[in-house]
Design brief:
The chain has 136 residues and is mostly helical. The chain starts with 6 loop residues before the first helix and ends with a helix.
Length: 136
């Protein structure tokens, strides 16, 4: 998957990463007020994320539940590499691990895994990240 989530979609993903999978109502209960969304807006955002491949949909006892399509560190690694290359015009493998030390989103093990992914320059499939593949 190559779609980058927008800021609102990132909030949905954070809720899903912290709870594995949630119904649309549970996502709304987690982030709806902070985002100033109605329940129907939450459902619309989630459905668009399913359509974009950012979120998967499953049914548990007839209830639709949603989960992040990518592991947290895989998506963050792609976003950091993309930002570093596109905006900073720098080599993402040169980022120091200390850049993520203050993150409330990543625990120590996830920070170490993210550091390893960035240093390897590999995406979740183990392929080298290069400009020819992305067309940039």
């Amino acid at each position: 998957m190559t779609t980058e989530p927008n800021p609102s979609e990132l909030e949905v993903l954070k809720a899903l990463w912290s709870h594995d999978r949630l119904s649309a109502r549970e996502v709304h209960d987690q982030i709806g007020e902070a985002q100033r969304w109605s329940y129907s807006t939450t459902r619309t955002v989630i459905q668009r994320m399913v359509d974009k491949g950012l979120v998967t949909k499953d049914s548990v006892h007839g209830l639709a539940v949603f989960a992040a399509a990518d592991r947290k560190v895989d998506l963050i690694s792609r976003l950091v590499r993309s930002f570093t290359k596109r905006v900073l015009e720098a080599d993402p493998t040169a980022l120091p691990a200390s850049a993520f030390a203050g993150s409330r989103l990543l625990d120590e093990g996830e920070r170490a895994e993210l550091d390893a992914l960035l240093k390897a320059g590999a995406d979740e499939g183990g392929h080298k990240d290069n400009e020819e593949e992305t067309g940039q």
